Structure formats: structure tokens, C-alpha cells
Amino acid sequence: MNDRQPIGDASEARAGWRLTAPALTIILLVALFPLGWTVWESLHQHDLRMPWLGRPFVGLGNYFTILQDARFWQALGHTALFAVISVSLELSLGLALALAMNRTFRGRGIVRAAVLVPWAIPTVVAALLWRFMFDSQAGIANVVLADVGLLRHPLVWFVRASTAWVPVILADVWKTTPFVGLLLLAGLQSIDKELYEAAATDGASAWWQLRHITIPLLKPAILVALIFRTLDAFRVFDLIYVMTGGGPGTSTEPVAVYAFNTLLQNLEFGYGAALSVIIFLVTFGLAMLYMRGLGLELGGPRRR
Amino acid sequence: MKTERSSRVGPIAARVGLVLLVLFAAFPFYWAVVASFTPEATLFREPSLWPRELLLDHYRALFTERDFWTPIKNSLIVAGTTTVFCVTIGAFAAYALARIEFPFKRVILGFILAVTMFPQISIVSPLYMLLRTLRLINTYPGLVLPYVTFAMPLAVWLLVGFFRQLPPDLEEAAMVDGASRWQSFTRVILPLTGPGLATTAILTFIYCWNEFLFALSFTLGPERYTVPVAIALFRGQYQVPWGQVLAATVVATAPVAIVVLGFQRRIVQGLTAGAVKG
User: Fold this and answer.
1) Which chain A residue has its CA at the smallest distance from B21's CA?
2) Which residues of A are less than 8 Å from B213 in CB distance?
3) Comparing A223-237, A266-280, B41-55, B198-212, which segment has the lowest mean pLDDT?
4) Among candidates A21, A114, A138 on the partner chain, residue whose Cβ is nearest the Cβ of B45
5) What is the DSSP letter of A137?
6) Fewest C-beta atoms under 10 Å: which of A203, A284, A293, B81?
7) Cα separation of B23 and B15, whole Å?
8) Which pLDDT belongs to residue B212?
9) What is the four-CA torsion angle of A299, A300, A303, A304, rounded to 10 degrees?
């Protein structure tokens, strides 16, 4: 509708602004203003447990401390590891799901519903379901894996980081692959069927069609899914907080859990704010990077 | 799908894959339901794929000993208020952003999308200070206010997608007939967007119902816990009371599952429209 002739420029603009103003003001007040506050707070030393110290301005002091904070770098490593593994699994499985669902078959509604439910439930619930399945040595995961012959001895999954990541990543894949799949499916359905028919008459194999028609035309949808998932994975909190609590020790702690603990357990608000700013900057940077890759198609409603 | 034979192998492989996928998606729920009816003592002793008994003790304990009604009530109040507020205010903004040409419109849209990607953790500390100053920690408004930070941009973004799907000349036709911009919006556009508004409300509600970090940060005790916080903080004296936890997950999941099953087509449409068509 952007190519439509405007009805009367000045009054249109006024109507547009007047209708947008309330929501925009609220978003600025409740989201942008706190963000500015976080940045300001991060330049101070502020410990709520020691109010007598006041709130001295320390400039970039907190950030310099973070650069030498081993726990921060480990948390960043955990987050990156989690993001790379879970997002690549989700994208490949999601693509397979979309391709399989992109044909009419009986029971398609059931499949869609079945995969949509995990996406819609609270992450906390998903985390608990998977923690329960992996919890005890006699939990269902150990029993099944032993029956199939993959495990000789039952594992205590959550006592070591290397094994604790398995249920964590499985739970994330379980919960979010459907979303990726449905996003890609919508992309698939917008591809012109005639392209495939033409390719088929020319004798092109299904593999050729996938590589030369589907994947290139699906690229925008894949990028959108990639953005959403990477940003989500980078902010991961609920899942790990509930499944491992960041433990054992801090060996599975992602940056968001570290920042949360710094803020609300240790009440070190200045340092915690600095950590929050860094999380924000990294997410923002990632989003910008992807947006550039998308050619800014996402923000602009030009394309219809 | 690799060779020419794939025209035959493909569909079968796809079908088998889909069946496995549905099983993978459904099994954790099934297992939680079975376990929630199993006595605590036999929960980890020779687990069986079929329920051996149907014990209602965990559900009874959930509502009598734990008072699980309170978190359900808290969640309904907070998520409901946030949803009504954000969808109402958001609808005006979304209408303008979808159907009126005005300066900086694209900048605003980009900004709103950017806010939906904000990491929640990066505004926890100022919101905490703000709510503490206003004495709103551990209150309903003290949760609604933080929830608006993600629900408002989400609602606007989804609604823009729905408003854009209406044919472009609708208001013009109404305005030629003498209706004002406001009248054409309230009498022509809004009624036609009913399903879109409903879908947006459902999705916004689900996001609020599921939220964990803010509710964990800004509530102090069981009297204000929302459902996710209450479940996550279940503690027995020595170990996790799995029977009750699983009964609680079943109770928390069932309404969401029913809504999703009922509105799946619309929900998928709402989720993908904004994102893919851009």
C-alpha cells in the first residue's frame, strides 16, 4: 500500500503521528529509558549490600574489570557454544521439517499442532520435562539409551558440564525447531510452483531442485530464522537457570545467568549493569550483522 | 532426497520422518502425564512406558498443600491486563504504521522491531530500581509494567502484519463516502481485523504467561509468584518433588495446548506473516 497516492499529506502525517504516539511513548519510556539507565548505572560502583559506600562514578572501570574476569569469558564461551550447536541443529532439522511438511498429506494438521505445542509452552516447563527425563540414574533417558545399546552404564548427566549440555541442547532443539520449521515452511510456500515444474520437465533431479531453486529462494526466510534463533540463544536464561542453574559450579553458566546472579543475588548493580550492557551490545551487533546480510529487507515494509 | 529415485523414496522417508518427529514432540508430555499419576516412590524404580496406576495424590497435594491456585490467578491477572492494554494501544499505532504514509514511519517500524529483540536481562537492573522507588516490587502493576516492555512491541509488530493483509483501497472507499479517517478505522478496518486482533491477543497472552526472568526478579514470595516461577522454585525438603512438579507442568501446559490446537492455523499465520513477508 506504500505505492498508493496519499490522500492529503499534512493531515495524513498528523493522523499517523497521533495514532502512533501513545504506543511509541510507552515503548520509549519502558524500554529505551531503562536501557539508558543501565548504561549510566554501569559507569558507577554500586553495591546494594553496602549502601554506605554510596555510588561513586568509576567511568569505564567496571568494563576494564570485566575484560579480566575469567568467569565472564567462560560464560561468553558457554553462550557461544550453546548458540552455535543448538542453532545449527535447529536450522537443519527445521529445514527438513519444512520440506517434509511442504506437501499435502493426510494428518498435516496433526503434525503442525504436535510441533506447535512445545513452542507455545513455558520454557520453564520444557526445562523441567527434560530435566526429569535425564534426572536420576534410573530416569527414562538412561533406561532407553541402555536398551538401545548406546550406554553401558547409566550416566549421572548433571554432575559434569560435558554431559549436562546434552539434555540442555536437546530441550532447546525440542522446543524451538518447530518455530524454525514453520517459518521456513511459510517461505517454501511462497516459492512459485512453476519453477519446479519447469525444472522437472527439463529433467532436473530433486537434489538439483533443492540446491538451485529451494535454497536460494528460501534464503530470506532462513536468514530471518537465523536472526531470531541466534539472538534467542544468546540471551538464553530460563532453560539453563532451571535445568542446571549454571552448574555444576559455573561450568554451564551463560552470560545472562551470570548477569542475573551478579545483579539479584550479589546485588552488585554497577557491575551487573556493565555485564547487561555488554550482552545488549553483542546482541545488537549480531542483529546488525544479519540485517546487513538481509539487505535490510526486514525493517522496511517496501517488499510485499 | 539425493537421486532420481527420490521421487519415490522421498515421500516415504518424509512420512517416516514426520511420524518420528511427532513422537519426539509428544513424548515428553506423555511421559510427564504418566509420571504425574505415579507414586513418588516408584517414579525412578523400573520406569514403565505405560501407567501402572492412576494416582491423583500429586494433583491433590498441588492444590491443597501448595496452593497452586494462587500462581494461576497471578498469571491470569498479569498476563490478561498486559494483553488487553498492549493490544488496545498497539492497534492504533499498528494501523497507522500499516496503512498511513507519514515521515519516519520506516524508522519507527525498525525501532519497534529492534525493541522486540532486546535482551530482557539488560533492563532488569533499572526496572528493579524503578519499581523499588515506586514501591511496586512484589505487586501486580510491578509485573505488568515490565511485561509491557516486550508485549507492546510484539503486539504492534504482529498487528502491522495483519492490517497490511487487508485490501489497500478500503478506507479510501469509505472516505470517499464521507467517513473520516477515524470512522473508517473504527467502522471498516477494525471489524475486518477481528481475527487478527484475536490472534495477536492470544500470542501476547502466551508470551506473558510464559515469561520467567522478570517474574523471578520482581516478585518476592509465593503470594505473587506467577506459574513459571512457582514451578521452577518448587522445593521439597531434601529433593525435587517430581510428582508434584510434573502435575504442575501438566496443569500449566494444558490450557496453552488447547488454545494452540484450536487456533493453530491463525497462530502460524500471525507468527510467519510479519517475519517472512517483511
Assistant:
1) A115
2) 237-238, 256, 260
3) B41-55
4) A138
5) T
6) A203
7) 12
8) 95
9) 80
